[in-house]
Records
---
Amino acid sequence: MSPDPTSTDQVRTDQFGPDLVEVFGPSQQDGGPDLVQLLTPEGERVHHPDFDMDFSAEQLRGFYRDMVLTRRIDTEATALQRHGELGIWAQLLGQEAAQIGAGRALRPQDYVFPTYREHGVAWCRGIDPLDLLGLFRGVDHGRWDPAEKNFGQYTIVIGAQVLHATGYAMGMQRDGVVGTGEPDRDAAVIAHFGDGASSQGDVNEGFIFAASYNAPVVFFCQNNQWAISEPIERQTRIPLYQRALGFGFPGVRVDGNDVLATYAVTQAALQRAREGQGPTLIEAYTYRMGAHTTTDDPTRYRLSADVEHWKLKDPIARVEAYLKRNGLVEGGFLESVQQEANELGHHLREGCKSLPDPDPRGIFDLVYDEMPEELTQQRDEFIAYHASFSEEGASA
Amino acid sequence: MKITLAKGLNMGLRKAMEDDPKVLIMGEDVGTLGGVFRITDGLQKDFGEDRVIDSPLAESGIVGTAVGMAMRGYRPVVEIQFDGFVYPAYDQIVCQVAKIHFRSKGKTKMPMVIRIPFGGGIGAVEHHSESPEAQFAHTPGLKVVACSNPVDGYWMLQQAIASDDPVIFLEPKRQYHADKAELDESVLPAPLFTSRVVKSGTDLTLLSYGPTVKTCLKAADAAASEGRSLEVIDLRTLSPLDMGPVLESVRRTGRAVVVHEAHVNLGMGSEIASRITEQCFFSLEAPVLRVGGFDTPYPPSRIEEDYLPDLDRVLDAVDRSFEF
């Protein structure tokens, strides 16, 4: 009797390759051999065969300033939450390089779809950080005009905005602003999301649509290792950037704590998209030094040794080290940035407390473009009901 | 010209696309196939692949990318292939489509139409015969309409596309190819968000929308032979509800029966009965009665006729109303 080729004893498990968990173990903290890096944690410039570029002293000082001010936005907002001025705050501590590198790679005509943590990218888009606080204070859902700043509303539902970004990019294609060869005209979209969002259907559907239509969108995943308390091992068995291959576009892992590398990689991906070459997935390998939000307690689920390990990779310290070593901080540069940060802190402290509560009558006004009569009626009843209290007060 | 509902919708889409180059169609199989019900037949051929977009098989992806298109200034018309397949897109519809205008303080408009062939009676397998309208009508920020005949299909779809608010557009799939009606384009349509008396009567008001309007008209004919005069109102708009003609009618007849295919519990009938009770209490001769699908999943199609409100169940409810 000849052996049955389909019988189970003929199946060799090693045909399926090595155990992926061994390839991508939970203890890996250096980002692995594929990590694109241009500035080491010690502040030394290194070179990369594909993504190397030259930076002017002015650019480097600009990155430093952006990161220090972004960190100040974060620490100030965290303090405001502790003082009861904000209901909640989503911290970005440790992710400054990922956001500033990505944010500064944008051109004015590009469009950003953020999560609720992109305070550094918002800074790069010229949004007053005070305008970010309204959502967290509960007075509005974000005060900036998305169309004016080319920076969408913060999106709370995880991953939903990745589809919006893809659709917006498809709109750009139809508007003829992709692949024209005119630098001021060609545009792209960047969609931000986290490692947790990579598990969402919408993110994966976004990848499929973008690949299908070759949409000019850069998927920028900040892998900060934690989705609240769920570790990256709960989201994936392979490095996230490798997923791109399965969708049919390039993926790259960049040191998310290295602002130079993040800038270089994002700029290349955006340029690729603007030229009409389609989507790219960037995995910015970083670490969330703070909590998920101010309601979270990371000491319950992660080791302090990990946090200490990542402190050594601080994105600001390494640029500062580089600037000092190369004599780029003369003329009181560091002090002037510190002074600016203090002023920004003051602006946020004072401004936050004076953010006005919205007029309750406004609840009704902007639900629809054209307000239905039944809602007008509810509003009128509400106004009359409230007015009845002041009339009672006046007559008493 | 005599047209079917399917033809009316197809003509309405074509007219909207001719009138406004920002109108796009997106969905599964809407291009070369013309949609599984052929509602988009011939449109890709005439308007191209950039405007009639055959999409991957992913409902959340279709609606979510349409949100992005709308943000970029387009007016996407999305086709959900069947009612029961809208649920994967439910999050995008109720959390994003419905709320973006409010969230952005009106700065970002969401002029999107989500077309859903809905209801049963076509002998389909499960998930192909559902009536999810109450789930969307319960969501502030969405407008929900249902057409019941070819002429309304032609006009209401164009009006929905012209609206700057997102509209869930329900199409009674068992009527697509059922009856023909005369379309006279010189007769201008009623506003989109209005209900309409489609048959006058004096003794009881039948309220319905979509596929069961036809059932109610048949019931009115049958009741007439028994000497009862039933008024039939096609609600047409479910959110907002246009209660004006309804209240006026019920104050006159003193009796109302609401008919729909969806589950009765917490369905549109509950809201309508509640509003009638609040506003016409002293005119009522009987409680407002509801006829609908049972509070069960949609059954296997061999027994769907027992589930769907038919002529006899409507007439039975009419009899019960007169027993008070």
---
Amino acid sequence: MSTLRDAVPGADRSARHRDPNARRPGTRRRSRRVERLLGEHPLGLLLSSPYVAYVLVVFLIPFGFGVWMAFHDFFFTAPGVQVPHPFVGFDNFGQVLGDPAVRQAFGNLLVFLVINVPLTVVLALLFASGLDAVVHWKGFFRVSYYIPYVTASVATLTVWIFMFNGNGVVNRVLGDLAPDPTWLANQNLIMPLIAVYVTWKNLGFYVLLYLAALQNVPAELHEAAQMDGAGKWQRFRAVTLPGVRPVTSLVVLLTIIMTGQIFTEPYLLTGGGPDGASMTPALLMYQKGIQQGQPDVAAAIGLLLVLAVMILSLASRRLTERKG
Amino acid sequence: MMALAAVSAVALPLAGCGSEGPDEASGDSTELTSGPIEIWYSTNEQEIAWGDQVVEAWNAEHPDEQVTAQPIPAGSSSEDVIAASITAGNAPCLVFNTAPAAVPMFQRQGGLVNLSTTFEDGEEYITSRSGTAADGFRSADGDLYQLPWKTNPFMLYYNKDVFANAGLDPENPQLETYDDVLAAAKAIKDSGSADVVIYPPATADYTNVNFDFYPFFLANSDGTQLIEDGHATIASEQGMQTLQFWQTLYAEGYSSAEAYSGDMWAGPFADGVAAMGVAGPWGKGQFDGKVDYGVVPLPTADGKAADTTSTFADSKNVSLFTACTNQQTAWDFLKFATNDANDLALLEITGQFPTRTDVPELAADFLAENEFFQPFAASVPLAVDVPTVDGLAEKMQVFRDAWTGAVQSGDGDLTSTFEDAAASIDGISG
């Protein structure tokens, strides 16, 4: 295929004229091939190569190997041990789909999503709007909201255990209204509690995203709407919400992806109980793959989880990016 | 996606399990060599002190076969860390804290050396030291992949101050039967002298079976293991009695289904939160100076004499790993670490009983001077471990899931829940 320079001979001539040391045609062809292969700025390739290597080694190759595991009879062995790993087709998936614990774990994720996503979006937008309007102490509030996000889950979960255990602050405040069985041992309350905890923990990050988005909503639009007689709620609905739609879409997407990774909270709080009420696919993968020596089954669960997250992510993008 | 990537990231380096090299799964190495070795031991203070002492004594006499020791690296559990190190090929030569429940999996991974066939004196040394107890740790092929090292018979500790405050006799607490315990529990709760009567680890982790159901079941069933002849025994008459007992403890609020937020193992009893606790002789080191306690055998449905009450052994053994280069030194060190002097030192320093036939003779002076350990010593012959069967972790998880629902939360019919669980366990290969 000819290039623009080939098509415009004058361009080449002028270039040669400018450069008395211009290369011969054969050298130029080689140079073009190299350019096609490495791009216009090979240095960029060099600079990005550590990250490419990182993605390749830490994500893509392991992911591919995980897919391979899911279709084979596989378990971890010591180096040098000869063990056949026959192809088993969809056997691992059949075992996984027939396991009530797996179905329950995915059901729990759904409960988590239904609570976590709307709560995150609403609270983050609410707090961001409040912060945007605050004149004094803005930095203090931002840091306050952000601290849980950067604090280790182990530490924040300990605080929640003290708050929500049988003799915790929450039950003392509730008195006779305290649930029985109490929060951490209650099959109906444990997953909502985890969803609220995760919402609280990550809220600071999403507040910052919304704050950045709010500052990009043109003030002129608000002023114009105000001049047209729009009230606060109308301005919020007609100006602010559409203005932050891209961030809302991102927040929903991120919360869905993070939902698939829920592990630490049920692992530390309940070990997945009571009776599997806080079991998640990621925790189940740990049980099957590491504790029970069935990494092939764990990989099958993981693949289903990836599919579920991808489907939900695509659906969320369709919904949140649709123009009103 | 990240979750799958995480599992895969662990798996990837392991995928390089090549096809070359000896068939190490059999444990038949071609040549035994001597030289420096590395060992891991438990992370508790007393065992580190014992281990350091033994290693120092060995190193002083073996300049060319130096032993480097360290506590098992931090992880969610020792078993997970060891399994990962086997796969990565960097397991130490010896681990002085191998849980018998994990041995079938380590063996399946090809990580363990067959002690029976690799060393000429392997069988003879182990059986002469541990007697018939060694048979309880044989693998499916009849060989030994672990040296039975120490036994920690569980007994019931009770807080004398709490019992006295509840109007119970702290010197004769009457805890022989389940009804006795429930009556004491009612008195304790009514008096408000403790927050909880008994507080074993409450999470759904499969290993917690060993701290609530299993010791009581062993006592009530004269030492019937969780799985015998390939079948789960939990739905037996004795099993149902124990399950019913625990269900009542939870239903009446005598026990808590919440995870304890303090030190899980010694905490609730040592902190005075729980009036009773189940622990081995190591409990002395944990509870001394914190609570005034007494010890009785585990209760049963009908009550049994102490000298006929079985209990959970909570054994920890020593395994030799195929990643070890100098396996002859590892075996020699293993025999050194379990000789008369070091076994006695183990008891004296850690309060844990070496798994050997002659403890009463070996430790006669120590036991005479330390009355506390005498009932534990008497329980050693009645202590029973987990079964050595494949897939035990998965089987125990099935039981635990049923437990957290039917026993802790009181959901569903107890009998049908555990009959279903037993059927599920029977259906798991292994």
